[in-house]
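Q: What changes when 2-oxoglutaric acid is included in the input?
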Amino acid sequence: MREHITLETPHLSDSYEVLEAFQAGQVACIKASELLIDDVRALNFDTLKNQHRDVPISGHTKFEDGVFKPTLSSTETFINKLEKFISLNRLPTASQRAYFYGVVNARRYFFKNVIYGPVADMHATQASYLWLGMSSGGLHYDALDNVLFQIQGVKQITVFPPQYADQISQKHYVALDNELDLFSVENKTKHPFLSEVPSYTIELHPGDAVVIPSAAYHSPKSLTFDSISVNSFLNPKAFGKNFRSRFARDEENTSWVNSNYHAIASRAEFLRTGVPSLKTGHYEII
Ligand SMILES: O=C(O)CCC(=O)C(=O)O
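A: The predicted holo structure follows.
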């Protein structure tokens, strides 16, 4: 079985270089402090439980026939159960991993924008999500340019350059027999691209961030179960410079998702009714 090819990840020094990376379709690392507001960098389980206890969190991120099936609980309940599980010092079963993998719509419940500076200025909206606990390595791409920040704990992420997206799949998710061990023999046998397409494997510690351009397939996996990450999908501006690379993809079957007229309409709908009209996958654009 052929070894997979690991690329060396470039490190960017400021947010102007992030804009260039998006344009080029370049995966890269950067210090979170260059982009992420202080209030988000300071989050931890205690602040989440004390200041945001009732915020709804979707656990059990599960896709059946492409449908997102969340199990809702409050952030306080979710974290209390997760902390209890961690204190038992046991390896989770697959269903426990799914149960303790939670996502919160950060834009709706916490902060309108988590990214500041030139990257924020050059995009129309940010759709940000908080990822808690046991990210299980599901391999997928997203339509929007994205930055993933590590706040607490350690996460490993493997990212494939968007130039190779067509060689990987046309689908949003790649169904793997073994999500936790991406380059396992069983996965490589079924999916030859795993030996053929080069990738970056990055370990994210608190204060680290990774730039994930549109169409870059990625597999995020928590190495510690107390992990808190936040990501921000960047919706390009209607007028002015568009930073998406020539490898960027639109959402499956919904190329209109990246139309800013829809994003503006979705925002107006959200302000009026509390419910956005536009989704990209299960992500709301508000
Ligand atoms: O960190 C995670 O668990 C998921 C993040 C992710 O998939 C993303 O930022 O697109």
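Observations recorded in class: The longest strand covers residues 123-133.
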